[in-house]
Amino acid sequence: MTTVVLMGPPGAGKGTHAGTLAEQIAVPAIATGDIFRAHVAAGSELGRTAQQYVDSGAYVPDEVTNAMIRERLAAADARSGFLLDGYPRTLDQAGVLDELLVAQGRELTAVVVLHVDRESLVARLLNRAQVQGRSDDSEDVVRHRLEVYSNQTVPLLSLYGERGLLHEIDGNGDITEVRERLLEITYQLTPAR
Questions:
Q1: Which residues take part in binding AMP (predicted)?
Q2: Across 19-31, average pLDDT
Q3: Taking Cα atoms as reference points, which of 82, 75, 69, 70 lies closest to residue 25?
């Protein structure tokens, strides 16, 4: 069973590469951002709540995110493993994920983090805002989101590094270059067949 967390700051390419990496290790890619956007598109109460936080560059409250992840990881397609994109983002969420995995008789296989320099991230996200019309990608919101990532998510790198789970990838460069770097580690993440 392969259970992977894909991390990196906003704009690092998690969403771009999650599907390819998940396909290579034969597990579903589970992205909290996609779950939030689906609720927003459906006009659900959760979607309206999530949109307020996303638009300001803040993280959606843990209790909402944790409940969605708990439900999603219990789905049949995730029983043989998963790749989480966008979760956990805080030490508290990491604790909830640990508890959830223990309750399911599983443990994390690896945490893969994409590193990209700050100005490249800002440029990528501003370009994405133009291409996709995303309200959460204005320059002020982007810079705020990067600060939130530094303050709340970066501490997870030490936690997972201490556990020997961390695989750090240079996320600078074009999509093909980064994808090749990611695919190099899939052999380490995939159990022998």
A1: 32, 37, 58-60, 86-89, 93, 134, 145
A2: 93
A3: 82
What is the pTM (predicted TM-score) of this model?
A: 0.87
Average of per-residue pLDDT across 69-78: 91
d(CA 54, CA 36): 9
Catalytic residue among 134, 143, 179, 181: 134
* CB-CB contact of 135 with 145 (8 Å): no
> Tens digits of per-residue pLDDT, 88-113?
999 999 999 999 999 999 999 999 99
Is 152 marked as a binding-site residue? no
- Within-domain flag for 23: yes
> Domain range for residue 180?
2-187
Does residue 89 have an active-site annotation?
Answer: yes
The dihedral of CA 42, 46, 52, 57: what is its sign?
A: negative
pLDDT at position 92, please?
95
Query: For this structure, is 14 an active site residue?
Result: yes
Choosing from 70, 106, 128, 143, the catalytic residue is 128
Q: Is residue 193 part of a domain?
A: no
